[in-house]
Amino acid sequence: MTSFETVRVAAVQATPVILDADASVEKACGLLADAADGGARLAVLPETFVPLYPSHLWAHDAASFNGWDELWRRLWDNAVDVPGPLVDRLAAVCTERDIHCAIGVNERESERPGTLYNALLLIGPEGLLWKHRKLMPTMHERLFHGVGAGDDLGAVDTPLGRIGGLICWENRMPLARYAVYKGGPQIWVAPTADDSEGWLASMRHIAIESGAFVVSVPQYIPADAFPDDFPAPLPEDVEVFGNGGAAIVEPVDGEVIAGPLYGEEGIVFADCDLAEGLSAKRYFDAVGHYSREDVLASHANAPAADTAQTELRPD
Description:
Number of helices: 8
Low-confidence stretches: none
Mean pLDDT: 93
Oligomer: single chain
Largest sheet: 7 strands, mixed
Helix content: 25-40%
Shape: globular
Radius of gyration: 20 Å
């Protein structure tokens, strides 16, 4: 039976300990405890929090190959095996504090060393519940991450309700959103590196479209967070590589009910009455009475020429 209780959620805007997986996970564990102390039952952390997001502000030259081997190696050395000991550490805190955690990581496969993936993990008191690999890395991200298989789109039943979501600009992909909507998410998690006003507008739209509370968590990455031995050049005129904007949005009118938080680390909280999502779907249910899959599914699969506007003929 789907839950319609009120759930306190936390959008945790934090800076990773760059290129240090152990320290980043240790920091995440402390932040989970802080969120639990604030009454949260779900805490959402940013995209690739462990151990680094390859920002276009400094990583756009990675396509040149030369000079980036050390960064790649250190990124791989500090990526996360899923399942694995770092996930177990996060799960232990979730068990101890009775909290669920959604967190972005660079994922590796130690049994077959090679490609890294931008992954979103959902962890609860019972352990790892869900892993989603980003379907399509954005622009320069393709120099660091492989593409996801797309077999992990959906929502997960938890004691808090049904939780689903997408990573960063996947949230702009209508068919990806629709695939997750079909799982009936009540809480939508959206870790990201986008701190723009346009991103927040997208989150408000998705809250209305999905009928779910949206927890959006961008990154806050000041320049002084980078270690002195960071193995890639950083632009000298940039003080912040991600200004944050953590926010929580309700599903009826798309109103921001917590945040946005900019320019600092911090946690924003909101109490989410999941029954509001049910009320929202009375008006608009994207995969129910408003879906018209019978008409639109064939258009989504048809070649572009077949979906062009029919030529108008005079009477």
